[in-house]
Design a protein that fits this description.
The complex is a heterodimer.
Chain A: E1 3-7, H1 11-23, E2 27-31, H2 34-43, E3 48-51, H3 60-69, E4 77-82, H4 87-95, E5 100-103, H5 108-117
Parallel strand pairs in A: 1-2, 1-3, 3-4, 4-5
Helix pairs in contact in A: 2-3
Chain B: H1 4-18, H2 27-40, H3 46-55, H4 60-70, H5 81-97, E1 104-108, H6 115-126, E2 136-142, H7 145-153, E3 155-156, H8 158-162, H9 167-173, E4 174-177, E5 180-183, H10 185-188, E6 191-195, E7 208-213, H11 222-234, E8 236-244, E9 257-259, E10 266-269
Parallel strand pairs in B: 1-2, 1-7, 2-6, 7-8
Antiparallel strand pairs in B: 3-5, 4-5, 8-10, 9-10
Helix pairs in contact in B: 1-3, 2-4
């Protein structure tokens, strides 16, 4: 079973994302900020990380930069999932090593497509 | 609620003027699409709308009804596999057989709000080696003037630009436009949009190397499908290609095109039918 770490300071967003990801057969863990996420990655690197930007303690970009400098830190597929929706933020995220970017709000189909896009999910037969 | 009589009346109008076949189970679809028009044109009910369609079948309201009923959800890179055929089979083959410098012509026969033609244009820009520097013309046609206006403007909501499109392409080919996103001018200029009803003659469009005719034939009955496919074949080059939607086929409908052994999703003209072109 593939694993996904959901990093968001909103419990509601984590809960919604968890439900969608579990419907897609992911095993889900959660972190409420970048520091918690780094601790989670220290225990086990997930296959996919769904990453909010604005969070207390360590934000999404700070987490991503530290993750990518870890040994094997390039392995997890990182999908930013943020309300920041301007070109600069998106370009910055991609330059820092994000594989995809979801502008909130999102729904099940969008999340599924982005997971397919990064290769974390088999493409649905159409 | 629309009455059975009015549903029948509106269905007949749609069949006659757009070829759209509306199953009896599509009352909900019809109501949800046409309710906004009742308000917009301040019509009392569907009975009034049905009457106007009978009395003025080419009036403003009739036009709006046709547009509302024939517009589909459209995604960038819808279904992915057509674009794989496009880059892995069609472009390499055409580029190898065409003389250097000869242009390629591509027709999107159901361009809708532009996602498909722009996806084709982005694919071409991302893979310049596949066309060897030759000019590629993309013609996008649709029945609806309103959706073509949207296609031409290249404006999409934040939600639309995320559907089906990798973010790297968003960064390269779009710019922020208020809360929306807009296709950059260089990409917009690659597509020539024209209003066209597939029931009418389209030979004036000229000959094409690749025809995307996706998710539009499903609305027509078998006779109309056969007629459209035979006319598409007449303007498809003998070594050209036809792409249909995921749920569509030419098999059992038309001899104008045939499938390619061990390949699904695209078709080639049955060359004898093209003699002399």
């Amino acid at each position: 079973m593939k694993t996904c770490l959901v990093v968001d300071d909103s419990g509601v967003v984590r809960k919604v994302a968890r439900r969608m990801l579990e419907d897609l057969s992911f095993s889900v863990t959660e972190a409420a900020n970048g520091l918690e996420a780094l601790a989670a990655c220290d225990i086990a690197l997930p296959d996919v990380i769904l990453l909010d930007w604005n969070m207390p303690v360590v934000d999404g970009l700070g987490f991503l930069t530290q993750l990518r400098s870890l040994p094997a830190g390039l392995v997890p597929l990182v999908i930013f999932c943020s309300a920041e929706n301007d070109l600069d933020h998106i370009a910055t995220a991609i330059a820092a090593g994000a594989n995809e970017y979801i502008m909130k709000p999102f729904d099940f189909d969008l999340l599924r497509e982005k997971l397919e896009e990064v290769g974390a999910l088999e493409k649905a037969v159409t | 609620m629309i009455s059975a009589v009015d549903f029948e009346s509106v269905s007949r109008f749609l069949k006659l003027h757009s070829g759209l076949i509306l199953g009896i189970d599509k009352q909900y679809l019809l109501e949800s699409r046409l309710l906004p028009l009742l308000r917009k044109f301040e019509l009392a009910d569907f009975a009034r709308m049905a009457a106007i369609l009978r009395e003025q079948p080419s009036g403003v309201i009739a036009e709006a009804v046709l547009e509302a009923m024939t517009t589909n959800e459209s995604l960038f890179f819808r279904d992915k596999s057509p674009f794989e055929h496009f880059t892995k089979v069609m472009l390499p083959s055409l580029n190898a057989t065409r003389r250097p410098g000869d242009p390629l012509r591509i027709w999107c026969a159901a361009a809708s709000t532009g996602q498909e033609p722009y996806s084709i244009a982005m694919t071409l820009l991302e893979n310049p080696h596949l066309t060897g520097g030759r000019r590629v013309e993309i013609v996008g046609t649709d029945l609806s003037g309103e959706v073509l206006e949207r296609a031409r403007s290249g404006r999409y909501t934040q939600f639309e630009v995320q559907r089906g499109m990798p973010v790297q392409l968003l960064l390269k080919y779009f710019e922020k436009d208020g809360d929306n996103w807009r296709v950059k001018p260089n990409l917009r200029s690659m597509v020539d949009y024209r209003k066209l009803n597939l029931l009418h003659n389209f030979s004036h469009l000229g000959a094409f190397d690749i025809v995307f005719c996706r998710n539009v034939l499903i609305y027509f009955d078998a006779t109309t499908k056969r007629d459209i496919l035979s006319r598409v074949a007449r303007i498809t080059r003998p070594d050209g290609y036809l792409l249909l939607g995921g749920a569509e086929t030419v098999l059992g409908i038309s001899d104008a095109f045939r499938s390619v052994p061990s390949q699904t999703g695209y078709y080639v003209p049955n060359v004898p039918a093209m003699a002399g072109v």
